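Comment thread on ticket #2218

A.B. wrote:
> Attaching the input chain for the structure job we discussed in standup.
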Amino acid sequence: MNEVRIGVIGLGNMGATHARTLLEGKVPGAVLSAVSDVVDRRFPDFPVPSFLNSTDLIRSGLVDAVIIATPHFSHTSTGIEALEAGLHIVVEKPISAQKSDCERLIAAHRDPKQIFCAMFNQRTDPRYRKVRDLIQQGELGEIRRINWIITDWFRTNAYYGSGGWRATWAGEGGGVLLNQAPHNLDLWQWLFGMPRRIRAFCKFGKYHPIEVEDDVTAYMEYDNGTTGVLITTTGEAPGTNRLEITGDRGRLLVENGKLLFTRNEIPMDEFNRTSGESFGRPPVWNVEIPVPVASPGGQHQLILENFVSAIREGTPLLAPATEGIHSVELANAMLLSTFEDRTLTLPLDAAAYEAALNEKIRNSNLETKKAVPVSIASGDFAKSFGR
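C.D. wrote:
> Ran it. Output below, let me know if you need it in another format.
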């Protein structure tokens, strides 16, 4: 194939960023061919054919692929329409707002020649890629405990006021779990697999005048006894991003751009069985593991480069969209656990969650956003990248 002609559907913060990346020729083998949005205010920024209706772009014959960067619920309908039209697609995170919609979207991907990608850009982060390698190579032994405090997703009231769809059950289908933390939930399942049980405590509008969750503490259990705790919020500054993984053979810590490995010279289980010391503990090596320098083009650009390479050369995808259902299932389960005040066993009952979400939508009180400022400063959107 010659250059892949890509259309961008949705010119909000993220869609406009992708369109600009393509327009500036930063993705080899790809060209921006068309854009679509329900309002035309950003059309002048992109000198390509523009459409007020995504269907018209999909059927235009001008594109081989589309990037879907619309509000969450339309990821499903727009993605299905694009797949049925024979296009390759990239879907922004989350791939859908609920597990049942993920299942519908994934079922529409019937042609293996169509490249179906999710924008899980943090899978390109050298630190997390190295962590995954170490786990898969058995360097940590059996994992015992996972703790991730990811509270540097701070957002202001002005952010939530920048779009009527934001921070609503009908618009986003949730809050921090569906907008910011999908990256962390995807990395969680990518690194550790899916847990068996979840008990979560979500707080709704704790820090902002919104109806959805902006503070979450979730406890997870695996069949082998591994436990994990995830804490995330958009209401804490300066915030923390600290991932700690404890295994039989030591501890990995990802924090402040570093990857630190405290390695037991003797595996913990072996030392426990054989040591005669009442208060002894295994001697350790302390190692800072070097990781490659991040790409100057940024994580999102790397996903787009991989997407285009998959289309042109058959390169394996870094983030297949079919795997996007797992982060959505985790988010849905944390919310349903809170709604029902109980521990849930996975896999999640998709129909039960859909019914619960529909009830939230029916009872939605959009007046909760009335305290959000009307005038919004533009700000630097790139500050939200790269957790």
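A.B. wrote:
> Thanks. Noting for the ticket: The first strand starts at residue 4 and ends at 9.
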